[in-house]
UniProtKB/TrEMBL annotation:
The keyword Repeat applies. Keywords: Acyltransferase, Amino-acid biosynthesis, Cysteine biosynthesis, Repeat, Transferase. This is Serine acetyltransferase. Gene3D superfamilies: Hexapeptide repeat proteins, serine acetyltransferase, domain 1. PANTHER family: SERINE ACETYLTRANSFERASE (PTHR42811). It comes from Oerskovia rustica. One of its GO terms (molecular function) is serine O-acetyltransferase activity. Its EC number is 2.3.1.30.
Length: 202
């Protein structure tokens, strides 16, 4: 069987983006509605195009122009050079910024006002790297070339300036990492904790 053409693959990625928006927003009613009225989806679709253009040096300027037109229309600024995985969903759109050297994994959810920004004016890697299934709350800022592991939740309005280990929750300014505790506390061995041993004896 012949592999799918680049156009078919591109259209498949766009369709995945639409499905991601439809499934992640409880307010979404059907695919047509999502395709028509979700600015975050329009921004991601435009990024898919501009990122392909970005790979051709001669097309970099038009890619940036298109990205700026998308920004005016959606309120979302995604630099064409950013590397974004599959099924990104930007809920509500407005005020999201994704910088040139940012890397975003698969199945990431960004709320409005979130920023994947830089802390220095130097060239080179200066924006964050997000793992898979990361959720970035409304108004949160992740600044500098920090690493945010898989399944991290960044709280609304947090300012993240240090790495965040996989599976944790980062809240506050500057953000503190909180590793969720297991629902059932692990059993304590009384032999290892003498105070408990006394209680058991009594
Ligand atoms: C951070 C977040 C993911 C935590 O969710 P959670 O795991 O259910 O945690 P909890 O709500 O139990 O809160 C845990 C602690 O963090 C605090 N906290 C939660 N969100 C916080 C935030 N954004 N900033 C500062 N502290 C926060 C809680 O007060 C609580 O503190 P305590 O342990 O001292 O009582 C969630 O609160 C959040 O901010 N999600 C973003 C949602 C969003 O942006 N929605 C926009 C919809 S339009």
């Amino acid at each position: 069987m012949r592999p799918p053409s680049p156009l078919r693959r591109f259209l498949r990625v766009l369709r995945e983006d639409l499905e991601a928006a439809r499934h992640r927003d409880p307010a979404a009613r059907n695919g047509l509605e999502v395709a028509l009225v979700y600015p975050g989806l329009h921004a991601v679709w435009t990024y898919r195009l501009t990122h392909r253009m970005w790979r051709e040096p001669a097309l970099r300027l038009p890619a940036r122009v298109i990205a700026q037109i998308a920004r005016a229309a959606t309120g979302v600024e995604i630099h064409p050079g950013a590397k974004i995985g599959r099924r990104l969903f930007i809920d509500h759109g407005m005020g999201v910024v994704i910088g040139e050297t940012a890397v975003v994994g698969d199945d990431v959810l960004l709320f409005h006002g979130s920023t994947l920004g830089g802390r220095s004016m130097k060239r080179g890697k200066r924006h964050p790297t997000l793992g898979d299934r990361v959720v970035v709350g409304a108004g949160a800022k992740i600044l500098g070339p920090v690493w945010v592991g898989d399944d991290v939740q960044v709280g609304a309005n947090a300012v993240v300036v240090k790495d965040v280990p996989a599976g944790s929750v980062a809240v506050g300014v500057p953000a503190r990492n909180r590793v969720p505790q297991p629902a059932v506390p692990p059993a304590v061995d009384p032999v290892e904790d003498p105070s408990l041993l006394i209680e058991y004896v009594i």
